[in-house]
């Protein structure tokens, strides 16, 4: 029963992706969905992308083994703050500047091919790593259901993803993401409570007495607090600038959609995560000793829920993987086709040829990711940490400096990005092979962030920005998405009435979800004795 339902739901995703391709008429449709995204669609794609294999497989496994505070209380809370930053600050500013991709911003900001090449290369490396995580997750899920070898499963999964990501571009990703989001909700609001109820809240709370420090800040593994805090910081910086979240803003219809998305989408992300993480701890009560721990949630659905619901849950778990993986395929393909080929080489193609190149780039990316995933180099959690750290140390200081600092120049951007990523990788490898040691609570992530920021400041003060860079900085300060949105609405027939309606809707959404959040989190605090 669960297999049949699983395949029916997956088929719906693929069919929907194929249907959506007929709406892709030009480059704007392919890259930013023609900026037609409604609140429902942007909320759906944001929440679906947030809830990836890292949450349902990697983090769930870590929490199952080590306890929830270190990973959920610090890591996931950092990711939540980073998502807010990505939507309300980075995404809105870049959309106001008419950016269709993140490297697009670097190109507009500096008009320097080396900055664009370095930024795009970092993006491709980071997204490839995060894409590998999703494909490994897909293999883990499907191997539980089908008697098919892991490499064949990866190939089939990649082919299914390419059907709607390569053909539909951002249109295909946003629509299918939203469908997947509603399937994922089933995991949070139906399946997780069933697993929690099976274990019992009292038994879940008593795990702290059975497993030493299970509910402690450093967890059952007694990790150094410096490492715990570095995860909190890494997830803020990574999620704050990761293209997979920032790019969710670009298809939005206007600024009101983005503001409502920030309230609704950022509510659903931690809400779904919390229930999943409590269910992961419940599995330690019900079935300790699951190996590898990445499959803990799969075991929970297969063993402790009715077959029909397990099928929906497995499809929802697969949806969390597919939504993020398709986004990464699309964005990495965009980076190769638009940011490197068109922007750096200054090639001007017609609409049809540009989309052909974009689709071909996605196929190339899929092949590379597929090969790496089949080799399965590490666990889901650790690959995600490495990929996230690359973005955090190399991109975030440069993005903030580019948006806020008048003295920011292409030289400072180049030096900062290179210094950050080289420091992180080189000192990480030296530590891994025990050529060097760091003080307790300090590691190569902290060092890379410090080096990246200091390099940016030193070079920024030493090298004067060009006239173009100073001019574009002024444009950043004068450009507001809110102003553009208001002007466009007022230009319509009955624009004043529409503007008032948008303000009322946004205020109602904000107040409603504040009330819901207070009630919901208050309930969990009381029930869990936090």
Shape: globular
Q: Give the rounded overall mean pLDDT.
A: 82
Low-confidence stretches: none
Number-wise, the strands total 0
Query: Into which percent range does the helicity of residues fall?
Result: over 70%
Strand fraction: under 5%
Oligomer: single chain
**Helix-strand pattern, N to C?**
HHHHHHHHHHHHHHHHHHHHHHH
**What does the largest sheet look like?**
none
What is the C-alpha radius of gyration, as a whole number of Å? 23 Å
Task: Give me the secondary-structure category.
Answer: mainly alpha
Continuous helix count? 23
Distance N terminus to C terminus? 39 Å
Q: What would you say about this model in short?
A:
The chain has 530 residues and is an all-alpha fold.
Describe the 3D structure.
Helices cover 80% and strands 0% of the residues. It has 530 residues and is mainly alpha-helical. It is globular.
Question: Mind sketching the topology for me?
Answer:
Elements: H1 2-20, H2 27-32, H3 39-50, H4 53-66, H5 68-96, H6 102-110, H7 113-143, H8 150-199, H9 201-205, H10 207-210, H11 225-241, H12 243-246, H13 255-286, H14 296-304, H15 307-344, H16 351-375, H17 380-394, H18 396-404, H19 410-432, H20 444-462, H21 467-478, H22 481-490, H23 495-528
Helix pairs in contact: 1-8, 1-15, 3-8, 3-13, 3-15, 4-5, 4-13, 4-17, 5-11, 5-13, 6-7, 7-8, 7-15, 7-16, 7-17, 7-19, 8-13, 8-15, 8-16, 11-17, 13-23, 15-16, 17-19, 17-20, 18-19, 19-20, 22-23
């Amino acid at each position: 029963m669960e297999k049949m339902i699983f395949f029916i739901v997956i088929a719906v995703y693929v069919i929907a992706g194929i249907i959506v391709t007929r709406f892709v008429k030009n480059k704007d449709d392919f890259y930013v969905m023609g900026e037609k995204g409604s609140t429902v669609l942007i909320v759906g794609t944001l929440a679906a992308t947030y809830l990836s294999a890292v949450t349902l497989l990697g983090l769930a496994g870590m929490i199952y083994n080590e306890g929830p505070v270190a990973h959920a209380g610090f890591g996931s809370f950092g990711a939540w703050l980073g998502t807010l930053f990505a939507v309300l600050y980075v995404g809105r500013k870049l959309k106001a500047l008419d950016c269709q991709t993140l490297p697009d911003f670097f190109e507009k900001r500096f008009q320097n091919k080396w900055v664009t090449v370095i930024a795009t290369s970092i993006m491709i490396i980071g997204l490839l790593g995060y894409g590998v995580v999703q494909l490994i997750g897909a293999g883990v899920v499907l191997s539980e259901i089908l008697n098919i070898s892991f490499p064949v499963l990866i190939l089939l999964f990649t082919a299914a993803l390419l059907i709607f990501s390569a053909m539909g571009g951002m249109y295909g990703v946003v629509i299918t993401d939203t469908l997947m989001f509603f399937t994922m909700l089933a995991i949070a609001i139906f399946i997780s409570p069933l697993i929690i109820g099976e274990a019992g809240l009292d038994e879940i709370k008593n795990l702290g007495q059975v497993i030493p420090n299970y509910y402690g800040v450093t967890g059952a593994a007694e990790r150094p607090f410096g490492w715990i805090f570095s995860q909190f910081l890494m997830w803020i910086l990574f999620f704050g600038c990761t293209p997979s979240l920032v790019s969710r803003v670009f298809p939005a219809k206007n600024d009101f959609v983005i503001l409502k998305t920030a309230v609704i989408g950022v509510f659903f992300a931690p809400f779904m995560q919390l229930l999943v993480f409590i269910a992961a701890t419940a599995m330690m009560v019900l079935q300790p000793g699951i190996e590898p721990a990445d499959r803990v949630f799969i075991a929970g659905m297969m063993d402790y829920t009715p077959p029909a619901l397990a099928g929906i849950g497995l499809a929802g778990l697969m949806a969390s993987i597919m939504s993020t993986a398709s986004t990464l395929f699309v964005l990495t393909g965009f980076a190769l086709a638009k940011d490197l080929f068109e922007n750096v080489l200054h090639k001007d193609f017609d609409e049809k040829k540009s989309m052909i190149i974009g689709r071909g780039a996605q196929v190339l990316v899929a092949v590379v990711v597929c090969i790496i995933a089949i080799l399965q180099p590490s666990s889901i959690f650790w690959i995600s940490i490495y990929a996230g750290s690359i973005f955090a140390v190399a991109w975030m200081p440069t993005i903030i400096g580019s948006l806020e600092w008048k003295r920011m120049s292409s030289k400072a951007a180049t030096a900062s990005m290179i210094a950050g990523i080289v420091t992180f990788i080189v000192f990480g490898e030296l530590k891994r092979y025990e050529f060097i040691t760091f003080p307790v609570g300090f590691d190569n992530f902290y060092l890379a962030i410090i080096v990246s920021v200091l390099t940016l400041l030193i070079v920024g003060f030493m090298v004067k920005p060009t006239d173009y860079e100073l001019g574009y900085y002024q444009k950043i300060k004068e450009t507001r998405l809110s102003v553009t949105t208001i002007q466009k609405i007022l230009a319509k027939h009955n624009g004043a009435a529409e503007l008032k309606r948008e303000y009322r809707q946004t205020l109602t959404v904000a107040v409603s979800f504040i009330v819901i959040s207070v009630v919901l989190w208050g309930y969990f605090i009381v029930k869990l004795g936090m």
